[in-house]
Write a structure and sequence with these properties.
Number of helices: 11
Shape: globular
Number of strands: 13
CATH architecture of one domain: 3-Layer(aba) Sandwich
Strand content: 15-25%
Helix content: 25-40%
Order of helices and strands: EHEEHEHEHEEHEEEHEEHEHHHH
Radius of gyration: 19 Å
Strand order of the largest sheet: 3-2-1-4-5-6-11
Oligomer: single chain
CATH class of one domain: Alpha Beta
Distance between the termini: 39 Å
Length: about 290
């Protein structure tokens, strides 16, 4: 039995379906998102949320492992990075301790570090610290930009390219990324689940190619066989509008923290240890995007 938090999200759905395909029993924390799965997918639902220790204790009870995926890039509806990333992780760790469950797979993010400029990366770092100090049999994954058929990043760029006469790019667009396919991320999680050599380790997850943001836009345009000029919007000029959207919208389309992230590289600086250890041959956007962007 594997208990999954954040299992109804973009990455979570991929991991859950891979677990089910491998014959694992899956239990999910339910915030009313059951409609994201079809009825014949055999999932046990636990009503609750990451802030409820009682719900987590119910979810963890009798489980063999926990996959903790809860994370946000934007703070919606009164939720904060601190509440979800730090307090949520602390709640999961405490529930596991009380229940005697030791195996934990934790989703972090590439670029997470103690001196990070963004609150997103700062709180992800603090969540990692909680996991590492927990004495659990934990494995931490740090993916770069995750893409796939249902993502909200590459697909949004593709929609802009299709329907707008120009493609807006925040900043110069020279920040570098190593987009990683969601199915490769899921494969690593599931293969690590019963791999004791991964206990206590952190793995960066990156695709095989590095792109600047401009190059990624150009690849999308090439795949869709359309031509659009890129309009570069200065970061400094977007700080005011980003701050305004944070005050107006419950789920702001742009935040000041995102502007910080968009100025940073998000690439792997070490050898692909995850690919070697789990036997995963990572696929890049040039191979995958043409299968659904058309």
């Amino acid at each position: 039995m594997v208990f999954v938090t954040g299992g109804t999200g973009f990455v979570g759905r991929s991991i859950v379906r891979r677990l089910l395909s491998q014959g694992e029993r899956v239990r999910l924390l339910d915030r009313g998102k059951q409609h994201r799965f079809v009825q014949d997918e055999k999932i046990e639902w636990i009503r609750g949320e990451i802030g409820s220790r009682e719900s987590l204790l119910h979810g963890v009870k009798g489980a063999d492992a926990v996959i903790h995926l809860v994370g946000i890039l934007v703070e919606p509806d009164g939720q904060t990075f601190e509440k979800l990333h730090i307090e949520g992780t602390q709640n999961v760790v405490e529930a596991m301790r009380q229940s005697g469950v030791r195996r934990l797979l934790h989703m972090s993010a590439l670029g997470t570090r103690p001196n990070a400029a963004s609150r997103y990366h700062q709180t992800k770092w603090q969540a990692e610290a909680l996991v590492q100090s927990s004495s659990l049999d934990a494995t931490i994954f740090r993916p770069s930009l995750i893409f796939g058929r249902e993502d909200r990043s590459v697909n949004l760029l593709a929609k802009w390219a299709s329907y707008s006469p120009v493609v807006p790019v925040l900043g110069p667009g020279e920040n570098r990324l190593q987009p990683v396919w969601v199915e490769d991320v899921s494969d690593c999680f599931v293969r690590a689940l019963k791999n004791p050599t991964s206990h206590g380790k952190r793995y960066a997850l990156c695709g095989p190619q590095t792109y600047t943001f401009n190059e990624l836009v150009d690849l999308i345009l090439q795949i869709k066989k359309i031509s659009r000029p890129k309009i570069h919007l200065p970061i400094w000029a977007m700080r005011g509008p980003a701050g305004l959207t944070e005050r107006i919208f419950l789920r702001p389309p742009l935040t000041r923290d995102q502007l910080i992230l968009l100025q940073e590289d998000n690439i792997c600086t070490e050898e692909n240890e995850a690919g070697k250890e789990f036997g995963v041959a990572f696929k890049g956007p040039e191979e995958i995007l043409p299968t659904y962007l058309n």
